[in-house]
Amino acid sequence: MIEQISAARAEAENRIARTIDLADLKSLDQEILGKKGTLGALKSGMAQLTSIEEKKLVGQALNEAFVAVRSALDERLHQLATGELDERIQREALDLSESFSSPVRGRAHIVTQAWQRLEDVFIGMGFQIAEGPEVETDWHNFEALNMPPSHPARSMHDTFYVDHGQPGSTVLRTHTSPVQIRVMHSTKPPIYQVMPGRVFRNETTDSTHLAVFHQIEGLVIDKGITLADLAGTIDAFTKAFFGSEFGSRLRPSYFPFTEPSAEFDIRTPDGSWLELGGCGMVHPNVLLAGGIDPEEWSGFAFGFGIDRMAKERHGVSDVREMYTNDIRFIEQF
Ligand code: DAH
């Protein structure tokens, strides 16, 4: 009987090892260890043994065989279960790296590059950076900047009005100048800040105009600030940003929020002049709107387009190219 047991055990272990399916493994359990199974039946046969000595030996062998087969079943169960999981993972896996044999490293857009360099240069000159909201109140965008309701820039043709609050009270800011007012309200003078951001005009786009573009505003408020400080700051900026071979000039102009006002141009090394932006001494009415006493403080402001600078710097002939996201354009910079 001992021989029968070890033969049944060997056969069982063999079958278990060859099973490749979980359901088959379950029925094998019954076929071996069940009452009528190959080992189970031998257990019932023990009743016919008469000698106690024999009962002991057979009982021990059977017990060992049961334990060994049970553990072989459990081990195989584990192998099959995890194997099935592995197989399922393989089958359902998505290869996201499929089309990238060598990854392409991205770069910042040329307007972002210009924006970041402008911030670096102004920080180097001792300015701080501030930002304001793109959706702005009519008051901050126009009124506080000394532009009365009759001002032509406030026409529906030039400004996007937002359906919010009183009709006509909310706009997409048309310039970064309203951030001057916000800075005056949040910071006690002296103020040396630049304010970059996105602006919006209700304009038909062409090679030099976009309806959505970027500006950077500058504001200095301190005691005894004069037009000479403005001219000196513009010139120092021009040389720091474009290079020492560049120069600058101010031309008389008009803006409601500055008095006197000027356009500023930069002189390129070949002697040609390029118009960059507007500037001037902050109008007393604007200081008052910002809660600053014009008898005590004075200041200057300036503002210019960032997209324009990126365009000139990289020799882009049409500003619209910068926003079509044509990969052949983008990859050049
Ligand atoms: N906000 C003006 C514009 O968008 C630019 C400008 C002119 C800003 C004169 C200023 C300034 O701060 O002093 O055209």
Produce the secondary structure layout:
Elements: H1 2-18, H2 22-33, H3 40-45, H4 52-92, H5 110-124, E1 128-129, E2 135-137, H6 138-141, E3 170-172, H7 178-186, E4 191-200, E5 212-222, H8 227-242, E6 247-255, E7 258-267, E8 273-282, H9 284-289, E9 298-305, H10 306-314, H11 327-330
Bound molecules: 3,4-dihydroxyphenylalanine.
Describe the overall structure:
This protein is an alpha+beta fold. Helix content is 42%, strand content 20%. The protein contains 11 helices and 9 strands. The protein has a 7-stranded mixed β-sheet, with helices on both faces. A two-stranded antiparallel ribbon has the order 2-3. β7 (258-267) and β8 (273-282) form a beta hairpin. The longest helix has 41 residues, at 52-92. The radius of gyration is 41 Å and the shape is rod-shaped. The mean pLDDT is 91. The structure holds 3,4-dihydroxyphenylalanine (DAH). 3,4-dihydroxyphenylalanine (DAH) binds next to β8 and β9.
Radius of gyration: 41 Å
Give the helix/strand class. Answer: alpha+beta
Output mean pLDDT: 91
- Major beta-sheet overview: 7 strands, mixed
Q: Note the beta-strand portion.
A: 15-25%
Q: List bound small molecules.
A: 3,4-dihydroxyphenylalanine
Order of helices and strands: HHHHHEEHEHEEHEEEHEHH
Q: What is the spatial order of strands in the main beta sheet? A: 1-4-5-9-8-7-6
The number of helical runs is 11
Cα shape: rod-shaped
Give the N-terminus to C-terminus distance in angstroms. Answer: 87 Å
Helicity level: 40-55%
- The number of E-state strands comes to 9
Low-confidence stretches: none
